[in-house]
Every structure is written in structure tokens, then in C-alpha cells.
Amino acid sequence: MDEPIKTHRKLLALSLLLFIGVVSTFNLMASDREFSEAENRMLEQLPAFSLKTLMSGTFTSDFEKYMSDQFIYRDIWIGVKTDTDRITGKKESNGIYLGQDGYLIQNFIPPTEEELQEKADAIQAFDQATPGLNKFVMLVPTAAALYKDKLPRYAIVGDEEAYLGKVRRLLPSHIHFLDVFPALYAGRELPIFYKTDHHWTTEGAYIAYVELCRQMGLTPQRKEDYSIRQASANFYGSLYSKSGFRHLPPDSIDLYLPKDPENYTVTYVDEQRSTDTLYAMEQLQKKDKYAVFLNGNHALVHIQTAHPDGKKLLVVKDSYANSFIPFLLPHFSEIDVVDLRYYDGELTTFVNEHDIDDMLLLYNVNTFFEDPSINDLSE
Q1: Quick check: helix, strand or coil at residue 314?
Q2: Could you tell me if 187 and 147 are in contact, meaning their C-beta atoms sit under 8 angstroms apart?
Q3: CA 310, CA 335: separation in Å to the nearest integer?
Q4: What confidence score (pLDDT) does residue 39 get?
Q5: Which of 92, 134, 140, 238 registers the highest number of CB atoms within 10 A of its CB?
Q6: Which of these, 362, 53, 313, 354, lies nearest to 208 by C-alpha position?
């Protein structure tokens, strides 16, 4: 072998060893991080060692996750990887597709028939336990259903509309299924979904609110009744964090503020804290700016409105409801908001003790099928 080739290979090997040594040194010197702002999630911490966890393999598995999460400049490496994937034509990362016009679109994975039946059974069991409660179900389609034309050609995404139909057929007729798919589809040329986040925008929530009023026999507030204020022009949401795709323009967050504001009280029950606003403006200075709506997710929130003669409403929800609830205030005297992922009380007891009139079950399609807490609705 020629001497120059040998020298070249030795230099490459030494460079690689030096790189590994430098990175390892920095990894050892760096403090562990608890939270990734870029990925918007908690990071793995050093697992506790024991002979039992070593023999079972859980220590090795947890340690690998820890090393991956705490790797030096992890956020930069994730960006480099997805940039490389984009150059090679790959437009999918962690179940997120990079679509046209800068849209990040989360894949919809259909549930099994058994999972579908479990959800329907849970709702019906709750219905039987609360016969005097008027029930409305709103399952919101996601961008994967409404923006199919923006998906990459090869993308294989489940049919959300078909599964919405299955849920509707499994529920008894007296449980009102609020189909917002047609209204949202008619408004799809508007910015009804964020491009970097899985939530609908306030515009999308307003369209669904008008449809809810139509189907519930309420008179909706006109769009002209609100002052639309841009709260942030630099929002990078959950899909941006989860996918690792970078170099995308940010979203903006709008608030629909009534031109004739009314007094109301918002109580975060578990925190024993009350405020006079539905908007946590301080959240706009953080990564998860969508938490400006209702200050994020909480087990139980009670809202006392300025309409004492109205009905009492219970909203059982995921985070899609956070930007939707402000539109409901003119129509009810009290609104209780329950997130089953954090609530550990008995919902049937709560309904009976508080003389609730109406209930709205509001979830996006993905969370509805994935969230196991819904199966405990009647417990």
C-alpha cells in the first residue's frame, strides 16, 4: 500500500478518535438538562443502578435513552439530521410529514376496532350513569384530513373522516354528535391550523364554535364582535419540536377579544388560584406559547361568567378546547373544564353534585383515539 494512503488513513483514524474524545469529554463536563425547549419535552435523567434493573435489561435501556437525551448539542444534531434528510428527499420524521407551503402534518394512525368499541362503550356507560345530562360530542379532524393535498405523494395517512363516521354510528342518537368536518373543510383556505403545531388556530376554533351554536340552537357571536389581536408572531409548536424539521417560518397566535368585554372569574381548582382572564400572557415568553390559552392544561378549571341565568356546562377535553372555550362564555352561567389526563375524581359524582345541564366532549381525533383516560369516563 502506498505510504500516502497509509498516512491519510491514519490521520482519519486519529481525527475520529480525537472527535470522539472531545465529544465524550464535553458530555462528561456538561450538566444534565431536565427539559428541551426545542423538543418541548422532559429529558431522560441518569437512571438508578441496581443489580435487578441490570439483569432485567431496564437499566441498559434507560441508560441508552439518557445518553441520547443528554448528548451534547443534541438540538443541533437533530437539526443537522433532518436537514440531511430533506436534501436527500425525505419528508417524514417521527410520524410528521413536511408538506407543501411549510405545513408540518402529523400522521393519523387508525385505532383497532376493539379500541374504537372501548371508547364508545365508555361514553355510553357515562351516559347511562348521568341520564339527565345533555351530551354533545365534538371530535375535531386534524390537518392530515383537511390538508391531504399538501401531504407528500408517498404519504400514507389513515382516513379520519371514516373513523369519525364509525364513532357517530356507535353512539346512541340522543348523544349529539357535532360534525364540524364540513365547516372546517369549507374554511380550509383560511389559516385554520398552525403550520408548526398540531392545534387548530383561533380562526379554526371560531369556525367550529359557529357550527356548535348552529347545532345547539344558540346564537353565535359575530366575528365583527371581536377585536382580533396578534399575541405572537414567533410561535414554533409541537410538530416543529417533535419532527426536528428546521428553517421554517414561525406561526402567529391570534386572540379574539370581545369588543364588549364582560367580567368573569377563572378558578384553577387544584392550584386554588383565581384570575379574571382566560389568557396567561406570560406564557408567550416561553416555548409553548399555545399555553396562553387557559394557561395550558389543568385537571379542573371553573369559570363563573356574567350570565347567572344561563345553563351550566361541563367540558371534557384535550388542549384543542383551550382556545375554543373563550367563545362559550356568553352562552352559559358556569363552565367546568375537566382534563381526564390529570383529573382523578369521579366525573359522574361531580355532574350530580353540581347540577350540570350540558356536557361537551371535545377532542381532536388523534388524542381521542390515543388517550386511555377516556376509557375511565364513567369511573
Answers
A1: strand
A2: no
A3: 10
A4: 47
A5: 140
A6: 362
Mean pLDDT of all residues in 245-274: 95
C-alpha cell at 346: 369521579
Q: What pLDDT does 130 receive?
A: 95
Cα 180 to Cα 379: distance, rounded to the nearest angstrom:
29
In 3D space, the residue among 356, 352, 313, 354 whose CA is nearest the CA of residue 331 turns out to be 313
> Looking at residue 68, what is its pLDDT?
57
pLDDT in tens, 30-80: 566 555 555 444 556 766 767 777 677 776 766 666 555 555 555 655 566
Nearest-CA neighbor of 142 among 112, 173, 116, 103? 103
DSSP for residue 251: E
Instruction: Pick the closest to residue 206 from 223, 190, 189, 194 (CA basis).
Output: 223
- The pLDDT mean for the chain works out to 87
- Secondary structure class of 58 (helix, strand, coil): helix
Alpha helical stretches, state H, the chain? 3-29, 51-56, 58-69, 74-87, 113-129, 143-146, 160-170, 181-186, 202-216, 238-243, 347-353, 365-370
Q: ∠ CA(56), CA(60), CA(61), 5° rounding?
A: 90
- Predicted confidence at residue 92, as pLDDT, reads 86
Written as nine digits, the cell of 251 is: 406561526
Q: From CA 175, how far away is CA 177, in angstroms rounded?
A: 6
CB-based contact 144:163 (threshold 8 Å): no
Q: How confident is the model at residue 378 (pLDDT cuts 50, 70, 90)?
A: confident
CA angle 250, 194, 44 (to 5 degrees): 75
Q: Compute CA distances 369 → 21, 115, 140, 365, whole Å.
A: 46, 7, 12, 6
Average confidence (pLDDT) over 137-158 = 94
Residue showing cell 357535532: 178
Asked if pLDDT for residue 319 goes beyond 90, the answer is yes
Contact 363, 371 (CB under 8 A): yes
> Are β-strands 358-364 and 311-317 bridged in parallel, bridged antiparallel, or unpaired?
parallel
